[in-house]
Amino acid sequence: MLTTRRVDAYHALTVVAPGIAERYRPGHFVSVAVGGPGTPMVTRRALAVHDVKPDYGGTVDFVIAVSGPGTAWLADRRARDTLDLVGPLGRAFPLPRDPVNCVLVGGEYGSATLFGLADVLLRRHCRVDFVLGAASADRVFGALRARRMGETATLTTEDGSLGLRGRVADVLPGVIADVRADVIYACGPMGMLRGVTAVGIEFDIPVQVAVEEAMACGIGVCMTCVLPVIGDDGVTRMVRACAEGPVFRGERVRFDDIGTIPFDALGAPGGGSARNVT
């Protein structure tokens, strides 16, 4: 552990992890053990990588919201504490081959994932515009950095305490039209991703979403993070967010069916698609 600091409603942690920093690509995450030796908290916590830097041989930043004993334990770490990390894990964001206009949409601390992506896109001479939102001003992460990095940065809060009152999906159509967006990248709560994807479909623009799904192991073993995703062949499968994701094409994710096994999913009990099993 190098540093931990409070950033509005969140905690930002920086760790020295040269191997992870070297292999990181935007969209990757790390799996972190919590609780220390002898803890009853046996499951790890999956945390999206916010940034990597060459400092101290390679440092990795991630941002957490305290929501239970595991994240509370992480928030209490101090300099010289050590963490057990596995990473980088998951499927990263696909990047455009040519310079295009990119809108990066973040909800709450999900915005943290987008800044490493923005760095790479800017190096590829893409235009980057941000749309960030949350319930209140203290939960909008990275507003100042978004203003520095992006051609524009549109901020929304549900209570009107920062930027425009409303949600990111409310203002996204106007941003898409203004900047002539070619692609949308998004990370945040599932409800936000659902709304952003719907806007992308309306404008016929590809949407790449990094889903926020509970991951107990982070390596594809425990099957706690499955969600229904439509494959290239049109068949819905229950896939693992940690292994096949966390980045998916938004229009392929069946957001309305998350938390269930759709009757037409491949292998579902009594499902119509089960007949496709060979």
Care to describe what's here?
Belongs to the PyrK family. Its cofactor is FAD; [2Fe-2S] cluster. Pfam families: DHODB_Fe-S_bind. Keywords: 2Fe-2S, Electron transport, FAD, Flavoprotein, Iron, Iron-sulfur, Metal-binding, Transport. The protein has helices at 18-23, 69-75, 113-123, 143-149, 168-179, 190-202; strands at 3-7, 10-16, 29-32, 45-53, 59-64, 85-89, 101-107, 127-134, 153-157, 164-165, 183-187, 207-210, 226-230, 236-240, 247-249. The protein is α/β, with parallel strands linked by helices and 278 residues long. The strands form 3 sheets. It has a 7-stranded mixed β-sheet with strand order 10-9-8-7-11-12-15, sandwiched between helices. The protein is globular.
Itemize the secondary structure elements and their pairings.
Elements lengths: L2 E5 L2 E7 L1 H6 L5 E4 L12 E9 L5 E6 L4 H7 L9 E5 L11 E7 L5 H11 L3 E8 L8 H7 L3 E5 L6 E2 L2 H12 L3 E5 L2 H13 L4 E4 L15 E5 L5 E5 L6 E3 L29
Parallel strand pairs: 7-8, 7-11, 8-9, 9-10, 11-12
Antiparallel strand pairs: 1-2, 2-5, 3-4, 3-6, 4-5, 12-15, 13-14
Helix pairs in contact: 5-6
